Amino acid sequence: MTARVLVVDDVEINVKLLEAKLASEYYEVLTASNGPVALELAEAELPDVILLDVMMPQMDGFEVCRRLKANPRTADLPVVMVTALSDSSSRLCGLEAGADDFLTKPVNDIALFARVRSLVRLKRMTEEWRLRDKICGRFGDLDAESLAADSAPARILLLEEDDFAAGRMADALKPIANSLARASSCADAHRLLDADTELFIASLSVSDGDPLRLLSQCRATETYRQVPILLIADAPDLVRLAKGLDLGANDYLVRPLDRSELVARSGSQIRRKRMHERLRENQRRSLSLALTDELTGLYNRRYVVAHLSELIDRLYDSAGETAVVLFDIDHFKQVNDNHGHPAGDDVLREIAVRTMDSLRSSDLVARFGGEEFLVIMPETSLPVATTVAERLRFRIANERFTVSETGVKLPVTIRLGVTTTGAAGDDVDRLLKRADDALYAAKKSGRNRVVAYPSDPPAASATG
Ligand code: GH3
Ligand code: MG
Ligand code: MG
């Protein structure tokens, strides 16, 4: 996995050193020697990871980090503080500024590459979700309820052999955990782990079973793949730690543990998990409920209106023409009344199938209302759209519809209103109003027919 890393340090030799190490692993390296330049570069280049020196004249690393996290464009970029100070107060200061991790100078290669890799992985995942959320997000409502859940206490699983250490950690985590399950062996932990676990804290020093093996099992199991894992390592057991990060652990702490750092890191993993979950849930809900019609599998009204307004916006640039066909089933109520609601559902589904069959793949079909459908045909003129509408009318009327329960064959007809986008200033409402007027005219003139209105409707239509 190749990625772009921004190295920020006021001492040139430090920059050169990190640059050389990263370049040897095929990372692309950008460099800055002070805060303001780093901020500019971060915003312009959006690197995958930023390695940030703490002690710099002019603007220190904490301030740079705060500003990066306060800017929506750069807030998601993972920041690793690189510091000579290893005392916990500076670590905390960094976490408060929004840093994602620390490296202590002189920088150890294993820790460096493990951290960079895992942060890049996380960033890619976040990007993917944000992108999907952007596409679907306008349809789903990120509700206040799920946002509030961010600070709700979490379900934490703690794997720790030592009773005293476990007790102290449980005590520290109390403010953020509503349930904390304790396991003292890997087998125990495996049994207690489930998809609702919001954080798994695993001590690498557990001797009953191999925590790293458990970790790799977790990552290979669909159910708990998304559970964040925080490793606790004894006095720098860096090789095992790096292996753990490689296997997919999200973060780590080294003993002796600092209570506030434990809480801060746990909290940020939980928040991250919840954000991913929310994005995914939002997307799932958007797709299944907000965008498609359950009965026919077609797009629904909500989607098609948004799609249409997007298309019309684009049309102003291209001077193209989009046709819409609005159609309605004739006397559909009689199908329900005479043959039952399920028979009506059969007809609606079959209409969807025949309509899809009659169109190009670039055309879009939506169920617009109960027994009303809308077809969008990009780059299609009124005469062509009218021909397509006529073909569709024939395709419905020509072959009877079979009721699945009884095998009864029903005659079904539709009427269709056709129009196209007109001059600039035309909008979705006007377009749909015109299609609806044409549809109404088709009903007045006897159903089972096509009526087309050009973008400048005939005067008669004004009276409806
Ligand atoms: P017209 O020719 O004037 O369009 O008459 P119509 O009977 O088709 O129209 P009307 O608006 O009077 O009735 C539409 C019916 O469609 C009433 C409603 O119960 C039925 N309907 C709407 N959605 C569904 C559905 O999902 N399944 C079934 N089976 N029926 C539905
Ligand atoms: Mg009808
Ligand atoms: Mg109707």
Structural description of this entry:
With 464 residues, this protein is an alpha/beta fold. It has 3 domains: 4-137, 3-Layer(aba) Sandwich (Rossmann fold); 144-286, Response regulator (Rossmann fold, 3-Layer(aba) Sandwich); 301-460, Reverse transcriptase/Diguanylate cyclase domain (Alpha-Beta Plaits). 50% of the residues lie in helices and 18% in strands. The protein is built from 17 helices and 18 strands. It has helices at 12-24, 35-45, 61-70, 88-97, 109-137, 144-148, 163-173, 186-192, 211-220, 238-247, 259-291, 301-318, 332-339, 341-358, 382-397, 428-444, 459-462; strands spanning 4-8, 28-32, 49-53, 79-83, 101-104, 154-159, 177-183, 199-203, 229-233, 251-254, 299-300, 323-329, 364-367, 372-377, 401-402, 409-410, 414-420, 450-453. The strands form 4 sheets. Strands 11-13-14-12-17-18 form a 6-stranded mixed sheet, with helices on both faces. Strands 2-1-3-4-5 form a 5-stranded parallel sheet, with helices on both faces. Strands 7-6-8-9-10 form a 5-stranded parallel sheet, sandwiched between helices. Helix 16 (428-444) links the parallel strand 17 and strand 18 (450-453). It is elongated and about 85 Å long. It binds 3'-deoxy-guanosine-5'-triphosphate and magnesium ion (2 copies). 3'-deoxy-guanosine-5'-triphosphate (GH3) binds next to strand 12, helix 13 and helix 14.
